[in-house]
Amino acid sequence: MVFDHVVDTAFAADAKSGGLELRDYFAAGCGHCKTLAPTWDEAAAAYKGPVTFRKIECLDANWEPIKGNEQLCKDISGFPTIKMYHGDKELVDFEGPRTKEGLIDFAKQHEGSSAQAAAIPLPMILGALWIPEIKKERNFL
Predict the structure, then answer these.
(1) How far is C-alpha 8 from the chain's CA centre?
(2) Which residues form the domain of 110?
(3) Long-range CB pairs of 132-138, under 8 A, 24+ apart, other chains included
(4) Which of 1, 46, 59, 64 could potentially form a cystine with 27 if both were Cys, beta carbons 3.0 to 4.6 Å apart?
């Protein structure tokens, strides 16, 4: 199986937009990556939801780094590596079954992660609610 030489130029804009991404970091010369590729493509095509499935080529067929993807791949040491991101924030590694169903289930389990990642911490919410009442009780207003 041949992989296209992919440099993800749209990546930076998408990451800044804050969407959920399930990322497959792969090396074109990796046998496990070649085995996963059709399963990944099937899962990506079948999944309907807020998570974007993204393939990022880190090393070419000669195990040379892909120019333009060095920053994205800097902390990746094994292939394939699958991680869930919210924008540019890593949420969790995928450690489930590398099946179409396993990938889709993982994406579905994390659909609410964008709301959680963007959520305001509870103490800030409670503080904002209670402070006016406390000021009023103590005649600070």
Answers:
(1) 14
(2) 11-137
(3) none
(4) 59
Instruction: Provide the domain count of the chain.
Output: 1
9 C-beta neighbours (distance < 10 Å), count: 9
- Give residues with Cβ within 8 angstroms of 19, minimum separation 6: 50, 52, 86, 87, 114
Please check whether residue 4 lies inside any domain of the structure.
Answer: no
What global pTM score does this model have? 0.71
74 token code pair: 């800097």
| Residue 11 confidence (pLDDT) | 44
Q: Name the DSSP letter for residue 29.
A: T
On whether the CB atoms of residues 88 and 114 are closer than 8 A, the answer is no
H-run or E-run covering 70: helix 70-73
